[in-house]
User: Which sequence fits this backbone?
């Protein structure tokens, strides 16, 4: 018999996910599309800092490069995109869907010491890496001390 560790937060996440799916399921009838455009999942993100830059890494499995947009404006870094659900095929039976699909958006406040004109983004193997360099003026520098 295999033991499964009880994790109350995981169960809470599952309940939240079920509620989200129920709330964002398209309704029959004439509905405004704006209600369905809201983000219904958010990719996980790591943010690192070095002496020269901030690095934001977002996991975006099954998301195509053309479905991701990165913008930096007014001190905000925004990552917007969509993970599209696979189309139903005749003769294929889906038993469980746990991954989230649809539009997503993440926004982060960027420190004042960045050079927003040199921001670069790379998308490879489902990982989006955004590099936000620090401004030359605020980078730490070493000052030589002369002995008199």
Assistant:
């Amino acid at each position: 018999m295999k033991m499964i560790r009880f994790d109350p937060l995981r169960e809470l996440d599952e309940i939240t996910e079920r509620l989200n799916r129920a709330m964002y399921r398209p309704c029959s009838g004439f509905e405004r599309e704006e209600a369905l455009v809201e983000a219904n999942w958010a990719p996980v993100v790591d943010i690192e800092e070095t002496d020269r830059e901030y690095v934001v890494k977002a996991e975006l499995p099954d998301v195509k490069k053309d479905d991701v947009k990165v913008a930096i404006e007014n001190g905000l870094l925004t990552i917007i995109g969509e993970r599209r659900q696979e189309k139903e095929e005749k003769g294929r039976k889906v038993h469980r869907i746990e991954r989230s699909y649809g539009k997503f958006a993440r926004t982060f406040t960027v420190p004042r010491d960045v050079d927003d004109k040199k921001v670069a983004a790379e998308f490879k193997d489902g990982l989006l890496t955004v590099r936000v360099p620090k401004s030359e003026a605020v980078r730490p520098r070493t000052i030589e001390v002369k002995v008199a």
Observations:
- Residues 25-37 have pLDDT under 50 and may be disordered.
- Residues 38-86+99-137 form a domain with the Immunoglobulin-like fold (CATH 2.60.40.790).
